[in-house]
Amino acid sequence: MKKPKYEMIKDALRKEITSSHHFNPGDKFYTEAELAKKFNVSSITVIRSLNELVNEGYLVRFQGKGTFISRARKDQPIKFSDEEVFPIKNDHVKVLTLEPGNNPEILKKLNLAKDDTYYIIERVRYNVDDPYIFQKSYIPSAYIDKSDLNPVYYTSIYRRFHEDFNIDMSQQYFRETNDVRLDIPEKVHQELELNPHEPCVYQNRLTVGRDSGNTLEIVHSYKKWNYFKIKIQSNDWE
Asked: Which Pfam families does the UniProt entry name for this protein (predicted)?
């Protein structure tokens, strides 16, 4: 099925915005008249293409001034990394819980059947004696080696995936969100030895198998605010 003209124009302009050195964030974009002439179409078609690009975040429009390249570039490759604020040799893990579960809501998020099960693994990471992150993982039972359910075996979940199932978790699809929270579950509050009203960074991460398409892990983490540090830089800056 052939694409509508406005979509073809939108795709061409989006490619020009993201891959061309002609435009920089904040630059003024083509006028409607220029685009109508460039693509030999009506102004109505041009306006629809521009509106789509505005809705997708590539352009911004100011009444009486014109259309400009968004200062918040979309789809720009960047390097993003967690920065440890203490020597990694000081890090150690305590496993609090390793038990099966079948909460319907979690089963749905893991894309499991109603009669299936998953395992809950709760862990606390320490900087020497200071607990700094509480992690609660939900893992389908298919990815738990039932021959050894000793909690100590799961101080490193990524190692278990690699050694037991030949899955490199760092190479799988994932999505993670981070936000600051004051409403902290009581168990987390106790395990992290938080002061009253002390905030945490809540991290929600979903990992899906690149080859299998299976959900491998959902992990909810609460990290002390003073241990949270990230570095973001352009992908082409060494």
From this structure: GntR, UTRA
Residue where a domain terminates, one of 41, 58, 73: 73
* Whether residue 132 sits in one domain with residue 57: no
At 172-228, the pLDDT tens digits run 999 999 999 999 999 999 999 999 899 999 999 999 999 999 999 999 999 999 999
Last residue within a domain, chosen from 28, 45, 73:
73
User: 58 is in which domain, residue-wise?
Assistant: 5-73
Q: Find out whether 130 and 143 touch, Cβ atoms under 8 Å.
A: no
- pLDDT tens-digit map of 83-134: 888 888 899 999 999 999 999 999 999 999 999 999 999 999 999 999 999 9
How far is the C-alpha of 83 from the C-alpha of 104, rounded, in Å? 36
Write the CATH number for 48: 1.10.10.10
CA atoms within 13 A on the CB side of 109: 17
